[in-house]
Amino acid sequence: MSSSPTSSARGSRLALLVVALCWLAVFFDGLDMFIYGSVLPHMLAEKALGITPDQAGDLGSYATFGMLVGALTAGTVADRIGRKKLMVACVTLFSLASGLCALSDSVAVFGLGRTLAGVGLGGLLPTAISMVSDYAPRGRAALTIGMLMTAHHAGGILSAYVAKWLVEPAGWRAAFWVCVAPLLFVPVLAKFMPESLSFLVAKGRTEEARALAGRFDVELPATTDKRLPADRWNSLVNLFRGGEWTQTLLYWLASFGGLLLVYGVATWLPTLMRSEGYNLGSALTFVVLFNLGGMVGMLVAGRAADRFGAPRISSVWFALTAVGVFLLSVHMPLGVTYLVVFLTGVFLNSAQTMIYATVSIRATPDSRATAVGWTSGMGRFGAVFGPWLGGQLLASGNGDWGFTAFAIAGLSSMVFIGIAALRGSRQTLRNSTEQELSSAH
Fold first, then answer.
1. Residues 405/393, Cβ–Cβ less than 8 Å
2. What's this model's pTM, rounded to 2 decimal places?
3. 3-class SS at 311?
4. pLDDT tier at 188, thresholds 50, 70, 90
């Protein structure tokens, strides 16, 4: 294919189209994910469905358990059937599941709805990350992923305003009806989202890939070996071949602590801040500031990661997150607390995303969705544990320990991703030395 300025402009438009559609999908993902934490103080106050604090923690874990299932299965499924089809299916699933929550008349039905929503939410995120990685400009993969993840926090901001403006006059069910709205986006996604060129080439669908590339005047990815049907788990096995297994386990452990922190704080921030003596309005303002910080952090971390390396930035960010989360357990003047919540959002959310960026950049195109999906999936065990832990601490009257426990999780992720960064640097140096020796001969 030609690399003329016109070709480059059309390729840029294709990248912009993919990122824009993925951004909207992840925006709805964020709205659905954060809506439960935003309406939870109201549900507990009015004892909606007879819910208690420990049950509230369990319900938060149901959604993250669904995300675990979605993340673990979606990566492999996406590498088999394609990113586009899976994204459409995931958006449809979590939208319909929110409708089930709105209609629920018991904790059990509500929990089923949150679990099904979690499956869709867990499957969408790694698939969208893999999609934008395929189309990201060269040398800007981490920044592109960071831009994508601002959508998740934009959805979180909207969830706070939905809870603040809609729940009081219309009730908590109205908030979940708002989360059904993404169904209107599904036909747009199905019509305009192109399939991943890397996926098409990897699956031997070269004519389809060539037609798509020709339409937008972009280059086809290098041809890879087409896999046999018997090799369906080959992408997963590749994560453990040679010396890759230690890196894989370190990424999984870092993701566990990171998502325990992310979803523990996302679920319980308004409620824990209320327990610290702040009113509901201030508690929801914390959600807005937390997610605004997340949007800023994604862009800053993306630029820094493209320059210094995603694992290094992730490690530093986790350390700063642990400090910020611990400070939230200290009652400070309101203005200072606002600042700490904002800065915690800056570092917390992008620290976890840079783990995904690291895995996505290191993975080969034909196994990228599997690598990101399983890293996300292993982290979902932490995402299941975080909301449950917060609920147990609150129910036992030890809510102050919630922020401390989450801070410890941040420190553990700092250690694991830091070790991964050191090992990755040594591996790169070793490979470079081997290449130089090979060239010399």
1. yes
2. 0.69
3. helix
4. very high
Distance CA 333, CA 295 (A): 24
Helix-helix angle 244-275:5-45, to 10 degrees: 40
Spatial neighbors of 127 by CB under 8 A, at least 6 apart, are 74, 75, 78, 83, 86, 87, 90, 369, 373
Report how far residue 418's alpha carbon sits from residue 424's, in angstroms, rounded to the nearest whole number: 10
One-letter identity of residue 282: S
Calpha distance 204→214 (Å, rounded): 17
Tokens 């939410």 correspond to what residue? 121
> Is residue 67 within 8 Å of residue 380, measured between CB atoms?
yes
Q: What is the pLDDT of residue 7?
A: 44
What distance in Å separates the CA atoms of residue 157 and residue 27, rounded to the nearest whole number? 10
Residue of 112, 78, 92 whose CA lies nearest to 365: 78
Residue 339 makes CB contacts below 8 A (sequence gap 6+) with none
For residues 261 and 410, what is the distance between their CA atoms, to the nearest angstrom? 6
C-alpha dist (Å) from residue 309 to 27, 32, 315, 320, 384: 26, 31, 10, 17, 29
d(CA 29, CA 91): 8
Residues 240-299 pLDDT 10s? 766 677 778 888 888 898 888 887 877 777 677 766 666 656 666 777 888 888 888 877
Question: Half-sphere exposure (CA, 13 Å, Cβ side) for 147?
Answer: 19
Q: CA 336 to CA 343: how far, in whole Å?
A: 11
Q: What is the pLDDT of residue 431?
A: 46
Tally the residues of the chain.
441
More confident residue, 301 or 181: 181
Of 74, 120, 125, the residue nearest 101 (C-alpha): 120
Cα 23-24-25 angle, rounded to 5 deg: 90
Show the CA angle centred on residue 386, arms to residues 383 and 391, nearest 5°: 135
